[in-house]
Amino acid sequence: MKEAIAILTGGGPAPGMNTVVGSVAKTFLQKGYKVIGLHGGYSGLFSKDVRSTEIDFPLADDIFNRGGSFLQMSRFKPSQADFDNNFNLDFFKKNNVKLLVTVGGDDTASTANRIAAFLEANKYPVANIHVPKTIDNDLPLPDGMPTFGYQSAKDKGAVIARTVYVDARTSGNWFVLAAMGRSAGHLAFGIGSACHYPMIVIPEMFNKTTITVDKIVNLVVSAIIKRKIMGMDYGAAIISEGVFHELSAEECKKSGVTFSYDDHGHPELGKVSKAHIFNEMLENKLKALGIKVKSRPVEIGYEVRCATPVAYDLVYCSQLGMGVYKLFAQGNTGCMVYVNQEGMVWPLYLKDLEDPTTHKIPPRLVNMACDKVEAVIENILAYIKPEDYEAAKAYVKNPEEFDFKKILNW
C-alpha cells in the first residue's frame, strides 16, 4: 500500500493556513505519498467516522493562495478518557500513515506530541511535525522570526485602521479600536504604528505598574487632550485585548465583562466586543470630566484571521510547508519546522522554547526597550507631558493624572 501522510489544522485560523497545507501536499505528492486532509482538527481522530479529504495536486494548487482553511478547524482537546476509549488507531493502520502534520498554536503542538507518544506506545510509531501559527506573533521563535499569519493580519488590520483614521479626520470624531492579541500586543502595536495612531495601549506598556481600567482610559484621555492642545479635534486609539488578561478579577468587574473559557482554559475574548467596552468606559470618563468628544468603537479581530495572505506569508508558509518534508526525510519527529531569516530549515523542539520550571512556552512580548518601540512612543504617540500642564488645565483640573509617563510609572 502507498505510504500516506495526514494533515490537520487546529485552533483558530490565520492567513497562510492553506498555503502551508497546499505546500505540504504538493511536496509529498511529488515524492509519491498519498496526502489525507483531516477536517475538524483532532476531533476526527477520536471518532469512528473520520471526516477527511484526499488532497491531490489540483486541489492543493487551488487552495494554496486562499485565506481561511480548506480543512475545517477545531479547538477540540482530547481528554485522557478520549485516548483510552475513542482513539481511532484503525485510521492510521488502514491508510498506512507514516507522518501526522499539524498546523496550529502551542496547544495544537502539545496534543500532537501526546498522539505521537500514544501511537508509539501502541507499537504504531508515526512521525509528528508541527507548523506553528498565530496572528498574535507571541511564539518565541529564534532571531525574532514572526509566526506565520502575523504579517498578513497586520496588513489587513492596517487597511481597516487607516480607513477609520480618515473617518476620524473627516468627521472630527475619535475612534477606539481593539485588536486581537491574547498575551502580547504585537498586532495592536504593529497596526497602530503603521497608521500613526496617537495612542496605542498594550499590556507590555504596564511593565512598571499594575494594569487597571482607569489607567487604560486615562491614557486615551491623555491623547485626546494633547491633540486638542495641538488644535486637532480628532484621532484614534488602538488597544490590545491582552490587557484583559492582566486585569484583576475586581478590575474585570469594573469593565462589566464576564468571560467564558475554552477547552484550553483561555478566556474567550472573541465572544465580547472589547472595543465597545473600552469606548463605553472612555465616554463615561469624558462625560465626568466635561470634555465633549464623540467616540466610536471598532473591533479588529475575526476580520483579519481569514484574510488572503500577503506575499510575505505566501513565501514564508510555502517554505514552512516544503520544510516539513526535509525534516521528515532527515528522520526528525516531535518537532516544529523553523525557517530562519536566511531561508534555512531547522527542527525546533518545544523543550527548547519552554520554561524549564513550568514546562510552558512563555509568550514573546513586545520589547519595550528596543529602538523601534521607543521611537514610536517618543515621536508618534500624543500624550500629556509636564510642559503641557498649563495648557491642559483648560480641559482638566489635574493634568498630572493624565501624564503618560506618570500613569505608567516610567
- The count of helical stretches stands at 17
Estimate the mean pLDDT confidence. Answer: 92
* Count of domains: 2
Profile the largest sheet. Answer: 7 strands, mixed
Total number of strands: 11
CATH level 1 name of the largest domain = Alpha Beta
Q: In percent terms, what proportion of residues is strand?
A: 5-15%
CATH superfamily of the largest domain: Phosphofructokinase domain
Low-confidence stretches: none
Rounded to an integer in angstroms, the radius of gyration calculated over CA atoms is 24 Å
Structure description:
By secondary structure, this protein is of the alpha/beta class. The chain has 17 helices and 11 strands. Helix 5 (106-121) links the parallel strand 4 (97-104) and strand 5. Helix 1 runs antiparallel to helix 2 (57-63), helix 1 crosses helix 13 and helix 8 (213-229) crosses helix 11 (274-289). It is elongated. The chain starts with a strand and ends with a helix.
Q: What is this structure, in a nutshell?
A:
It is built from 17 helices and eleven strands. With 410 residues, the protein is of the alpha/beta class.
Attribute tags:
2 domains, Rossmann fold, 14% strand, elongated, alpha/beta, 11 strands, four-stranded parallel sheet, seven-stranded mixed sheet, 410 residues
